[in-house]
Amino acid sequence: MSWINASRDTVFHLLALNCHSKVFNDLLLKLPLDDLMMMRNFDGDTTLHEAARVGCLEIATLMLQKEANLIIARNKLGETPIFAAAAFGQKKMLRSLSEKPDCGNGLRRDDGSTILHAAVIGEFYGIFLHYSNLTFYGSCSTYVTCHHHVYFLLH
To answer: Mind telling me which Pfam families this protein's record contains (predicted)?
Structure first.
């Protein structure tokens, strides 16, 4: 599989960005799994990062059924797909990814920013209000419960 634009996106990145889940699924059945799952663009994003960014649940679900470890894949900035979902205000995607067992490994970027920071910077202030499985608390420090585990996010 080769890149098709200057951002080094593959056809799978573009299908995810445009949420073409039927075509994505058809190609998924025809191509080797490793080619799809591990290809990254110039920013280090996997196809799951792109699906999370635009809220394409169908493609995210297909990918995670094939390779559950993609939930913790990091791009060049250390962002995971759950971080991308929070940064772009994708409530349904955030909820779906927060239900995965390894979601707690992706709540903080390499520079220390949390998914709460990402949502606030993107001005998605209410994104966490209705999720019992992904809730933030605290003043001097923050902790988040994710898939029934507690993670501390210190400032």
So the answer is: Ank_4
